[in-house]
Design brief:
alpha+beta; 17% strand; 6-stranded mixed beta barrel
């Protein structure tokens, strides 16, 4: 307590030093705490489920494919549940359902789960009960009951407890609400609902997860799965790869959305913020050394009076820890602000539904630990150095003015370290910025401006035939084309113009290989015109072919290259194995009538994939996507679309519309997130490093005031004095820049190996040149101010000082 009271008095005597040190530490500790809160919420503890690290997902591996999550049939799942190596199993089957009745028409994400789900996941509802084995009848049919997500409960019932027992009409069938799950529960959906999975459809596709039995190893379980799936493949060869396959189990935490690019980005950002914290520590350590030099007589007197060096080190460390504690408290405010910024920038689809990013008790404990450790790290070297002065020199009256270089080498080394770490942060930020800029300049192959999209889902009961679905879609498309402000419109598949169903294909009568895949996309006659995609060869569909659901196809340029070089695919036949599954009347063989320009159909950072564009009437799916080129605002178009749909069928919902430009921008959210945080930490690091240079040069000017006066009295000009201190700063910056660039080469390799930096190499000359120029400019400004102050020293005042 005595040490603490003394430390408080000392810090109060130096308010400027205390304020700068606390603010510097607050930036470093706050940024570190904010990143940790995200890492903890997304990577360390993203799920509320019981023992998530013990959950495994079965999959298959072949020479060309690695299906870590494979779709299994219900019958296959039931056979899997009987394996001795598996203690517990659960199956999930996602689908979309149409909500009608007393509520406004709406498309809901619904998840079928097996009766073991409540036990397997281990999360209790906040109202009612979970789904269990009793929700599946002896005949295998599921009971018509639903479990609501917290968001859907709030949306439909306003959070009222009387939601239990209420009836929801889904796909024209009544379902009774039996429970409401807590806010953090988000198994495959955070705003939908869950229904029991029955056994009445043994061919339904599901995704199973398992827990191993006590004593069972991963290898034993995989062998049992292999034996089972070999038997299943003999009975159902079409449901398994044609090539030889091996069963595999993958830990659930290794296949979630936070295990890919988001995980690698957060790991790199955590390392970057560690650099920032080191810069802050070096900065404050430098300030502590400078302050220790001014207290050299105080320390010498205490040592002369019998104080032990260990006692002085403890006293000085107490001051450091007190500073870091204050910095940690202020850093929490920064942490809250940075955390909110990260949540805004973070792409939702890269983070599990269940993850909660917040400053909780674990994060507070981390902040306290970092604050304590930081105080020891930046305070130990100054404390050790300040506690062993030369007593003879320190007790002389002129000691203050004679020790101009006391601790100078240590302070110089700290400044060099700050500059080097800042260069490494700037290099990381520069590479991510360059990658983001390159991504914005990607040639899309289509023009998304002034195009809006809207999704329409038809009831499977009332529109139970392809003919009914096509008649509805054709009429809706004709109505939309005639709306004011609409230049053109097209009907297509969900996700248009990205993605689509993947199918095996063959040309020239060859057998389809497992790794030969092509995207199946749907469109109308105005598809290319609406998206402004050039036609390279042949023609587009005609309205007659759309009306007749003709077996014709238009390929993109990448798909056209599947034919031997020099051969035109127009007029040739291509077989699409998955096409027949889309409609009972659809043939697997279609005739190529045209070739259109490649588009970025697999994302901005991926090369165009082979794609086959078919008439939307040929595969009459339940869900359709409208693409409309218009001058209207999306909101006003939504109201017009709803009016048209209400006239056609008041129980058909429309989702959207959304801007196609926004859909394209979503593909760059992850790079923008990484770029923004690297740039933020690099800017903070640069500011702290320049503050370190400024403080060291300011200290040297103050320490060498008498020397400057002597030099100027003997004839030295202001230019010589200015140059002397500018050269001192330039040497520090130059050494730090060289060390930082060497370290950046290794860091750049790490960055490019961990995340996708689009078209940016580790030795990017533009990034290196920009960093050198930026650092030189900022460092020159940081050196100039204290150097200019040195030129204004009055020689007579300086010589009379002592």
């Amino acid at each position: 307590m005595a040490d603490l009271k003394f430390a408080l008095r000392q810090l109060r005597k130096s308010p400027a030093f205390t304020a700068v040190a606390v603010l510097t530490l607050a930036l470093g500790i706050g940024a570190t705490t904010a990143i940790f809160s995200v890492v903890y919420g997304v990577l360390v503890s993203p799920y509320p489920y019981a023992r998530p690290a013990e959950i495994w997902t079965p999959g298959l591996r072949t020479a060309s494919l690695n299906q870590r999550m494979r779709t299994y049939q219900v019958r296959e799942y039931l056979a899997m549940a009987e394996l001795p190596a598996l203690a517990d199993t659960m199956a999930t089957g996602p689908e979309q359902m149409l909500l009608t009745g007393e509520f406004a028409p709406e498309v809901l994400q619904t998840i079928r789960v097996s009766g073991s789900a409540g036990r397997f996941l281990g999360v209790a509802p906040i109202l009612g009960r979970t789904l269990g084995p009793g929700d599946v009848r002896a005949s295998g049919e599921p009971e018509p009951v639903v479990l609501l997500s917290f968001r859907l409960w709030q949306h439909l019932f306003g959070g009222r407890p009387d939601a239990l027992g209420q009836t929801l009409r889904l796909n024209d069938e009544p379902y009774t609400v039996v429970g409401v799950m807590p806010p953090r529960f988000g198994w495959w959906t955070s705003d939908g609902l869950w229904l029991p999975l029955g056994r009445e459809q043994p061919d339904r596709g599901v995704f199973p997860i398992v827990r191993l039995a006590p004593g069972a190893t991963q290898a034993v379980a995989e062998q049992q799965l292999q034996d089972l799936q070999t038997q299943l493949a003999s009975a159902n060869p079409g449901g398994f790869p044609r090539d030889e396959f091996a069963s595999q189990l993958t830990n659930y935490l290794d296949i979630t959305v936070a295990s890919g690019e988001m995980k690698r980005s957060l790991q790199l950002l955590f390392g970057a913020v560690g650099f920032l914290l080191l810069i802050a520590c070096a900065n404050v350590a430098s300030l502590q050394l400078a302050r220790g030099s001014s207290r050299v007589r105080e320390v010498a007197v205490r040592l002369s009076l019998g104080a032990q060096r260990r006692r002085l080190v403890r006293q000085l460390l107490t001051e450091s820890v007190l500073l870091s504690g204050a910095g940690g408290v202020l850093g929490l405010a920064f942490a809250f602000a940075i955390t909110r910024l990260m949540v805004v920038l973070m792409p939702d689809f890269y983070v599990p539904n269940e993850a909660r990013v917040e400053v909780n008790g674990i994060v507070l404990a981390f902040c306290a630990g970092v604050s304590m450790l930081t105080g020891i790290v930046f305070g130990l070297v100054p404390a050790l150095q300040s506690s062993r002065p030369d007593l003879t020199d320190a007790l002389k009256d002129e000691a203050w003015g004679s020790s101009a270089t006391a601790g100078g080498k240590t302070r110089a080394a700290l400044v060099v370290a700050e500059v080097a770490l800042s260069v490494m942060l700037l290099m990381s930020a520069g590479m991510t910025i360059r990658a983001f800029i390159a991504l914005q300049q990607v040639e899309l192959g289509f023009r998304p401006e002034q195009v809006v999209t809207a999704d329409v889902l038809l009831s499977p009961n009332r529109y139970d035939t392809a003919d009914k679905r096509n008649r509805f879609a054709v009429e809706l498309l004709e109505r939309v084309r005639n709306l004011p402000g609409v230049a053109s419109a097209s009907m297509g598949n969900g996700g248009l113009p990205f993605g689509g169903r993947s199918s095996r294909y063959s040309i020239g009568g060859e057998a389809s290989a497992e790794n030969q895949r092509i995207l199946i996309q749907l469109g109308s006659a105005d598809y290319l015109g609406t998206l402004k995609i050039p036609l390279r060869e042949g023609r587009m569909f005609t309205e007659r072919e759309i009306a007749d659901a003709s077996a014709v196809v238009v390929l993109n340029e990448t798909a056209a290259k599947l034919w031997p070089a020099g051969e035109s695919p127009v007029g040739r036949v291509i077989r699409l194995d998955e096409l027949g599954a889309g409609s009972p009347n659809a043939s697997a063989e279609v005739t190529v009538v045209g070739v259109f320009a490649d588009t970025r159909n697999a994302g901005l950072r991926s090369d165009p994939q082979p794609a086959a564009l078919l008439p939307f009437t040929l595969v009459a799916v339940q869900s359709r996507t409208l693409a409309v080129r218009t001058q209207l605002e999306p909101g006003s178009l939504l109201n017009v679309l709803r009016t048209q749909l209400r006239e056609m069928d008041p129980e058909v919902p429309v989702r959207g519309p959304g801007s196609l430009s926004d859909a394209v921008a979503e593909d760059s959210i992850q790079p923008r997130f990484t770029m923004s945080l690297f740039a933020l930490f690099a800017a903070l690091g640069l500011a702290l490093a320049m503050a370190g240079i400024y403080s060291v040069l300011s200290y040297l000017v103050a320490r060498r005031t008498r020397e400057i006066g002597v030099r100027m009295a003997l004839g030295a000009g202001r230019r010589e004095v200015l140059g002397m201190f500018m050269r001192t700063g330039a040497r520090l910056v130059g050494v730090g820049l060289a060390v930082g660039l060497l370290g950046s080469l290794g860091l750049a390799r790490l960055l490019t190996s961990r995340i996708d930096l689009y078209h940016v190499t580790p030795f990017d000359p533009v990034t290196i040149a920009a960093i050198v120029l930026l650092l030189a400019a900022v460092a020159a400004a940081a050196c100039y101010v204290p150097a200019l102050r040195a030129t204004r020293v009055d020689p007579m005042v300086a010589l009379r000082r002592d």
